[in-house]
Specification:
This protein is 49% helix and 18% strand. The chain has 14 helices and 11 strands. The strands form 3 sheets. It has a 5-stranded mixed sheet with strand order 2-1-3-10-4, sandwiched between helices. Strands 8-5-9-11 form a 4-stranded mixed sheet, with helices on both faces. A two-stranded parallel ribbon has the order 6-7. Helix 2 runs antiparallel to helix 11. The chain starts with a helix and ends with a helix. It is globular and about 60 Å long. With 340 residues, it is α/β, with parallel strands linked by helices.
Length: 340
């Protein structure tokens, strides 16, 4: 096991060394700067398709200066490792989940708060408010990186070997969650046993009975084959969590005003592309899961689940003042939507 882990990181290191050499060689023969982007999804995932749109736009406008290379499937290491590489400038951009960013800026913890947004529409309107989100994006400047845009990672729901119709059905069940303290506390509030683990371990863990289920969007059922081992998917909508495209701050600040504008426009285009592909792939995943994998989709009383975990809001606010302004801003939008 230790040997495999060593081999994995040795391969990552060797790959980065090779990339550095190749970049240096390219620089001697031409003026284009190689820009490396890492992410953990497959080449067919909406985030990868969004990044291809990013690449196309930047190279169309600045192709004489920059060449963009995209590395999917955690080729350059796990999300946490890729963030660290982006901090140092070894790579330029990475797509990371907000749970991974909590350790760099406390404000990102708010996205782990259950039932933060009252609907997917509110969630998307908040995330698309670029003026406000700029405050969030710049919160990691001291850590050496900054977010450019967000990608829709959908609504997180429970799926398991046994049907979950009500919060009581979670009692005593071992459920995989992201490695976030707020997610662990959420599961405890439901009466379940939280089991933080790598996403890549979930299939085998469910299959072997190490855990009873997990929580994620519908693509996990098909892209990651979880629908083969978990036949019940319940729409409790407990979290709406984005992924972020973050860039090395030194690189971003080294761009000219015109170049920075083009990179930001490319980021916007990548988000639009990702959202369009996301909607298409979610519908396709639901169809495949239900009709080919035998997964049953269950509509539940969302308020019953929400009631169990709402006390976590105040607890999180008391422990982390950095999320309060953002929380109150979102609550205003929730209330306005309820009045309309």
């Amino acid at each position: 096991m230790a040997k495999n882990k060593f081999s994995k990181y040795a391969a990552v290191f060797a790959g980065l060394v090779l990339l550095t050499v190749l970049t240096g060689c390219a620089g001697q023969g031409e003026s284009r700067r190689i820009i490396r982007i890492a992410h953990g999804q497959s080449e067919t995932h909406p985030e990868h398709l969004g990044l291809l749109a990013f690449k196309e736009y930047v190279e169309e406008k600045l192709g004489d200066k920059y060449e963009i290379q995209i590395f999917p499937n955690e080729i350059l290491g796990s999300a946490q490792k890729a963030i660290e590489l982006t901090q140092t400038g070894a790579i330029d951009f990475v797509v990371a989940g907000t749970a991974n960013l909590e350790t760099f800026a406390d404000v990102y913890e708010i996205f782990s708060m259950p039932y933060l947004f009252d609907s997917p529409e509110i969630y998307e309107s908040v995330m698309n408010d670029k003026d406000y989100m700029k405050n969030i994006y710049e919160s990691t400047d001291e850590a050496g990186f900054e977010a450019l845009t967000w990608y829709n990672a959908g609504t997180r729901n429970f799926y398991a070997k046994k049907p979950i119709y009500a919060p009581e059905d979670l009692k005593g069940q071992k459920i995989r969650v992201q490695q976030s303290p707020a997610s662990v506390k959420m599961m405890q509030a439901f009466g379940a046993a939280a089991s933080p683990m790598s996403f890549g371990e979930v299939y085998t863990a469910i299959q072997q009975g190490v855990i009873e289920g997990a929580e994620n969007n519908e693509l996990a059922l098909t892209n990651n084959k979880h629908g083969e081992v978990a036949k019940y998917y319940s729409y409790d909508q407990h979290q709406m969590v984005p992924d972020m495209l973050i860039g090395n701050l030194k690189f971003l600040e080294g761009l000219t005003e015109e170049e920075r504008k083009i990179f930001e426009e490319a980021a916007d285009i990548s988000t639009q592309t990702e959202q369009e592909k996301w909607a298409e792939q979610i519908e396709e995943a639901k169809n495949i899961a239900e009709n080919q994998m035998g997964v049953e989709f269950i509509e539940v009383d969302v308020d019953a689940f929400k009631e169990k975990v709402l006390p976590l809001h105040e607890e999180m606010l008391e422990k982390n003042e950095d999320i309060r302004d953002f929380y109150e801003y979102i609550q205003e939008i929730n209330e306005k939507a309820a009045e309309d």
